[in-house]
Amino acid sequence: MRGIFISIEGIEGTGKSTQATLLAKYLKEKGYGVTQTAEPGGTRISFRIRELLLSPESTDMEPMTELLLYNAARVQHIKEIVMPALLRGEVVITDRFSDSTMAYQGYGRGIGLDLIDSLDSVATGRLRPHLTILLDIDVETGLMRNRKLQKHDRLELEDISFHEKVRKGFLGMAAREQERIRLVDCSGDIEAVRRNIVGIVDAFFDALQK
Questions:
Q1: What fold is seen in the domain 4-209?
Q2: Which of 62, 72, 85, 96 is most open to solvent, judged by the fewest CB atoms within 10 Å of its CB?
Q3: Looking at the predicted structure, is the pLDDT value of residue 1 above 60?
């Protein structure tokens, strides 16, 4: 089987990491080779960039610096983790990919979408997930969830209007790319969300066999 690339996206507090782990477990139990990863991160260099990007001490970071750093981390991530796993025929599940950059730096920060798309083309070589699960929840609930978990990275400290713009950006992308991006309401409990995701992924794999 050729490698399959799945991304899980969403605003803060949607439970992306939890659902990525549950999906990886499910697919492994079905006999698939699975690589689970996350952005920014996955490699030594990408993790160092992540620390700089998300540190609350980096509040003076320029939006363009932020954009370039995310793309730099993505280059390393693809080269060291994503492409080798896909070439091995594995299922790669990543917590965030290029859609997050478009949502956060494009819709959230207001950087030109054409510029972001051009930089993404250079960084990824136009690699796109075969399937994207977009977890959606209202902004206030998502931020409240993270506060309960005492998550306080730099992006989570942005005002609510920033996160509303990001959510609107994600939903707009989902409306335009309905075949690739599948919207999942994550306001329910973890198991209900998991079942929804598994149903989408199973249907996707079934379609590949036809």
A1: Rossmann fold (3.40.50)
A2: 62
A3: no
